[in-house]
Each structure stands twice: as C-alpha cells, then as structure tokens.
Amino acid sequence: MGGVTMQEDENLEDPSGEEAMEENQHNNGVCGCLCIPVHWFKMLSREMHWSFVFGVVSVYGISQGLGGALASVGTKYYMKDVQKVQPSEAQVYAGITSIPWIVKPIWGLLTDVLPILGYRRRPYFIIAGFIGVISMLLLSLHKNLHLVLALLSLTAGSAGVAIADVTIDACVAQNSISHPSLAADMQSLCAFSSSVGALFGFSISGIFVHLLGPMGVFGLMTLPAGLVILVGFLLDEPHMPNFAYRQVNQKFIDAGNAMWTTLKSEDVWRPCLYMYLSLALSLNILEGMFYWYTDSKDGPSFSQENVGFIYSIGSVGSLLGAILYQYALKDYAFRDLLFWTQLFYGLSGMLDLILILRWNLKFGIPDYFFVVIVESIAQMTYRLKWMPMLVLSSKLCPSGIEGTFFALLMSLDNLGLLSSSWGGGLLLHVLNITRTQFDNLWLATLIRNILRIAPLCLLFLVPRADPNSSILPTDHSLSAKEGIETSETDENIELVSLVNSVDGK
Fold it and tell me: Using one digit for the tens of pLDDT, what is the confidence trace for 148-172?
C-alpha cells in the first residue's frame, strides 16, 4: 500500500504525467517488439506473394522441421519395437532411407529444366506430397508390414520430403534474384521456420510415440505431406504453355559436362575429398546409443517422452552453434577453423564414453541431466563443424552453375553421411552390439571418437583462404558457354536451386 500511495503522490506532484507517458512508451515498445515478426511476415507476403511465404513455412517449418522430428523419433521406435531389428541393421536402414537426398541434383535439374503441364514448381510439390501421403498411410495402416516394404515406404517418404525441399529451394533462389534486397530475409525465414519446427517437433515427438505408438506417428505424418500438396495448388507461378521440350536433353548434357569440368580442378576436388572423408570417418552409431538409452537393464531406460525432450534440447544446441559461428567465427580461415571444430567434435564424443561407463553416476550426475548436456554439446559442435564446410562449398561453385553444383556438393556430403551410417552399422555388427547386448558399446564409442579426430591429418587438402576471399582462380569461372547455355534469363535464374540447403540434407 505504501508503494501505491507514493506513486499517487508522485503523480500529484507531476501534473504533466511524465511517468505515465514513459510507462506508456515502455508498453508500446514491448508491443512493438512482439509485432515485429508479424510485420516482417506481412512485408514478405506483400513483396513476394503470400503463397511463397506459406510454401517456405510449410516445407521448411512443418514438413522438414516438425515432420522430420516426428519421423526421426517414430522411425527409431518403429524399427526397435515393431520390426524388432538389431541396432546394426537399423543403422544400415537409416542410411538407405537417406539415399533420395544423395540424388538431389537429379530433382533439382528436373524442376529446373522439365516443366509439367506448363508449370516448373507446382507439379513437383503435388507429386512430392502424394508420395509422402501414400507412403505414410501404408506404414500406419499395416501392422505386419514386411521389412522390405516398410523400408521402401520410408525411403519413398524421404524422397517426397527431398523433392519438396529441392523445389522450394528453387523458388527461394529465383526470388532472391528478382528481389535481391530481400535475399537475407528469405534465408532468415527458411532458417527460422526449420529451427522452430524442429524444436517443437522433437518436444512433442516422445509424447505422441507414447500415446499413439510409432505407427500412429506415421499416420500424423500424412498431414505435413498433405500440406505440401496444398502448396502445389496455391503457389503463385506463371504458366508456360509453349515450352520447347526438345531442349531438355541438351540441358541435362550441358549441366553434366559443366559439373564434371569443375570437379576435375584441383582447387575443387581436394576440399571435396576432405569434406567427404571428414563425414565418412565420423562413424554414426546413434542407433546403438538409442537402443542402449531405452534399455531397462544396462542403459538409463529413458521413456519416449524423455527421448523426445533430449532431442529437442539437442536442436537448441545446434541453433546456438549456428549463432556462435555467425557472430564470432565466420571470418576465420577455413583450415584453422576446421582444425579446432573437428578436434572439439572428436573430444565431445568422449562425453558419450563417460555416460556409457556410468562414470557420471560416480560424480553424482543423474543420467537424464548428463544426457541433455551431452546432446546439446554434440549438436553444437557438429553445427560448428558443419557451417564452415557449407561456406567452403559455396566458394567452390563456379559462375554459371552455382545452384546445381552446390546441390552436387551437398550430395557428396550426404554420401559421406551415408558412408558414416553404414560404417557405424558394420562396427556395431562386428562388436556384437545387439538389442540386448551392449558390453562393447564403450569400445565402439572409443573407436568412433578416434576416427573423428583422424581427418585432422587431411587438412592439407583444405585451402588456407578465409570466407572473404576467392578460392577458385579467376580464369576458372565457367561462363554460360562452358556450362549451361540458356537463352532466357529466367532459365539461368532457375538453375540457381538448392543453394539454400544449409543442413546438408
């Protein structure tokens, strides 16, 4: 009551009401901050049509972010509890389902040079959505689905997401050329949508797996796929009724020749080789770790809700890694930064070893709390390792085929991830790590950590340049005559696809 009386006295002494005005300004400032994102979305919708913004949010945020998180956790429990496969087999199968992302240049070239019924983008969204809906329905409705059919359905669902990803990337690239002042805003829209979607998706994934089971989660996945179909019908795109389909074969040939010419350059293949090996040697044994996480005898016996929350915290760590790189590390030379990030990435894996040996309990740190810390650090260090590789990849792209060549580099990186997944599955099999046997999991983790540090010996393949300098020699720039000859400006713009895929997927 004394505070109220004092305030009333001050108001009486201040007839001009300055404090009330300041408080009103403060409230307006808070409301203004909350309204900034709304005004930003409205501005993007006004400048580039609302259907484009809807497409980015639907594909990046809901299909890839939220849907990808649900699918990731749901697939792990589906392989473990429904198909009842060994962790080494689940690791191999996870690599197989990622194959559609390895052939991303094919999807990119198709949406760039082969329109359907006079449209370049809309039909591919519709096709991708229907592939996703059918594959998820098949998984959700058949309780005793054969493993081969289940694997084909998971791969088809992954293909649907990959095709939608490539198509929206092409839309973003095209709008970045036509609205250069908003290019950074579009990148921010993509990153924001993906991060928020993944964070929310992982947060609820464990709850839905617990309530509905993994097959029920696959049923929910039909909704993001259906939303992609809706994007295809709503997207604002000009119709091209008289397209010269006879030129399609020549465009494919020109693109292939241009990419092969660039790859033969020593300035390109050496860093490409390093990026592939650095990913392939970092063996992926996540399926073995997941089986151990949920084991009631030898592991911490985490519930579905706990697993989902752990992964959601990991996505926060990944976001923090991206912010740290953007504001503190982005100007460092590639070789120096890759040395330290690769080293820290390998050392961070030792935390998994501490957890498996249960040393954390000796220090009085509960499993759940320690795993949350480990997952956050692991995702943050991986993001710090991945970001300079993405920037380096963009520096290796010659003029004229930037988008298509960047898609090729991302495919090589995804091939490295596939090699990592299959190599990890082989390691789990050799060490006899099964659904109920985890005695050698510590050894698999130790081998993985040592191999993570091995790429430090290959850093001589990486140029000493920094992100602000040019890596390719000036006379190496591929013009339209050497690369993809296109008479129309729009066709040149449309070949700049996939540049926005910054997660290697």
Answer: 999 999 999 999 999 998 888 778 7
pLDDT for 127 equals 94
Helix axes 147-178, 104-113, angle to 10 degrees: 50
Dihedral (Cα; 269, 270, 274, 277), 10-degree rounding: 60
Dist CA 456 CA 220 (whole Å): 43
Q: What 8-state DSSP symbol labels residue 464?
A: S
How far, in Å, CA of 1 to CA of 502, rounded? 57
Whether the CB-CB separation of 335 and 459 falls below 8 Å is answered with yes
Instruction: Give Cβ neighbours of residue 503 (< 8 Å, ≥ 6 apart).
Output: 194, 386
Expressed as residue numbers, the domain containing 262 is 47-494
Number of domains present in the structure of the chain: 1
- Taking the C-alpha atoms of residue 117 and residue 64, their distance in angstroms, rounded to an integer, is 27
CA distances from 321 to 189, 307, 334, 341 (A): 18, 21, 17, 11
Task: Let me know if residue 96 belongs to a domain.
Answer: yes
127 vs 114: CA distance, rounded Å = 14
Q: What is the pLDDT of residue 77?
A: 93
pTM, two decimals, is 0.76
Residues 6+ apart with CB under 8 A from 371: 293, 300, 302, 310, 355
Residue 80: inside a domain, yes or no?
yes
Low-confidence residues of the chain: pLDDT under 50: 1-26, 476-504
Whether 449 is covered by a domain: the verdict is: yes
Distance, CA of 475 to CA of 228 (rounded, Å)? 42
Quote the tokens at residue 213: 């089971």
CATH code, domain carrying 469:
1.20.1250.20
Strand partners, 119: 116
pLDDT value for 454: 94
Give every CB contact of residue 415 below 8 A, 6+ residues apart in sequence: 102, 276
| pLDDT for position 401 | 62
Has residue 217 been placed in a domain?
A: yes
Identify the pLDDT of residue 239.
81
pLDDT in tens, 255-297: 778 778 878 888 889 999 999 999 999 999 999 999 999 987 8
C-alpha radius of gyration, the chain, whole number: 25
Contact 406, 259 (CB under 8 A): no
Q: Tell me if 313 sits within 8 A of 376, measured CB to CB.
A: yes
What pLDDT shows up at residue 50?
85
Quick one: pLDDT at residue 63?
92
From the list 286, 263, 285, the residue with the least C-alpha distance to 275 is 263
Take residue 324 and report the two structure tokens written for it: 């740290």
Cα 133 to Cα 161: distance, rounded to the nearest angstrom:
11
pLDDT of residue 78: 93
User: Encoding tokens for residue 488?
Assistant: 């129309």
Rounded Cα distance between 386 and 337, Å, is: 11
Q: Helical H runs in 265-401? A: 266-280, 286-293, 304-324, 334-348, 350-356, 359-362, 367-395
Straight-line distance from the first to the last Cα atom of the chain, in angstroms, rounded to the nearest whole number: 60
